[in-house]
Amino acid sequence: MAQTTPVHPVDEVPPVRQLAAFGLQHVLAMYAGAVAVPLIVGGAMKLSPADLAYLITADLLVCGIATLIQCIGFWRFGVRLPIMQGCTFAAVSPMVLIGTTGGGLPAIYGSVIVAGLAIMLLAPVFGKLLRFFPPLVTGTVILIIGISLLPVAGNWVAGGVGSADFGAPKNIALALFVLVVVLGVQRFAPAFLSRIAVLIGIGVGLAAAVPFGFTDFDGVGDADWIGISTPFHFGAPTFEFSAIVSMLVVALVTMTETTGDLIAVGEMTDRRIEPRSLSDGLRADGLSTVLGGVFNTFPYTAYAQNVGLVGMTRVRSRWVVATAGGILVLLGLLPKLGAVVAAVPAPVLGGAGLVMFGTVAASGLRTLTQVDFKGNNNLTVVAVSVAMGVLPVGVPTIYEKFPDWFQTVMNSGISAGCLTAIVLNLLFNHLPAKAGSAAPEPDGLAGGGTEEGVEKSREEVV
Prior knowledge:
By secondary structure, this protein is an all-alpha fold. It has helices spanning 16-44, 49-71, 92-100, 104-127, 135-158, 169-188, 191-195, 197-209, 218-222, 241-269, 275-294, 304-313, 318-333, 335-342, 346-368, 378-394, 404-410, 413-429, 458-461, and strands at 85-87, 300-302.
């Protein structure tokens, strides 16, 4: 009998009912973050409620298209891994500055289009940098991604930034209730239900929230049934030099963040990133960003929120996330559906987020177990990189006296920690050791550099 070639879990296509459930779970995990960027930018520019609603539906539509491109892929576009795409928060401050200093939305979209084209051109260059991401660096970056996301979950637990009852005990109680449900389902439910523990937790939390007045569905009645995003709805793009420069800096930051996210998902799915696949993933980011500038939205990147969901559920199929992309397209075309999803209270998302984002950090620790910490300076590399990554998360205003370009790079804990890890790895493990250096201490806090356990490829380490 002829033997069939086994299908990699990333390429498996689950049954339709599982695709729908797993896909909806991914949408709920990233929805609040996805709509936050247009809300922040539009609110800062004092746009009308109708224009804000238009920005949100356009964002959801392009989120879905970008996710489909990344997961399914065509030619040299798309990493073909379970990666959700969404608007990057790294671009918020520059876009608010561009939009409120006279350029308006046309200047934002002009700079976004140029940034997207630049990402596509630079993608092969970043692909060749993959050799600078051994397990020492990748584990550190994944750990920083998880730690950087935890304040997001914390704000959701407290009720959402700007809410009148922020930090109220009832908000925290609801979040803890959802957390208990998620953990209970994951521990005691059958295999299929345990994989949608986050979806069940959010559903049960929403059901409990409605009678206690946590949410209402008034926005559903006000929303339109159909919403179509047309190119350049707010006018033809304008190309201002200062706006383009600031957005190019954002492009470099988002490419660094996306590289970390792609490597993290590659580790979780046992389909490790190679230079070509990294270039394909970044090229898809660039194309999605260009589409964002054309269809009245913003730059796109891989969403770390959903990296944790992949690790937690152990559902590795890219077709699950592609289904989530299809759901986002529907939400962008049918605003009433989007309003239903938007009615989920922040504490409900926070309870689920604690598990998902903590899973990302734990995955980084798992990768770091592959690294040799004896007789070298690897512990120093991890310690300083994590410190630099957490610094802007714990003290958000620490760099406010620095130039805008510096803030754009360093205010992102992911990019700050990633750059630090790469530089320190080169310093301690690739430069020749100094002559007559003392023998390394067992704890790895002193001594000369070594490439043992660092220079190995990820395949060799595993």
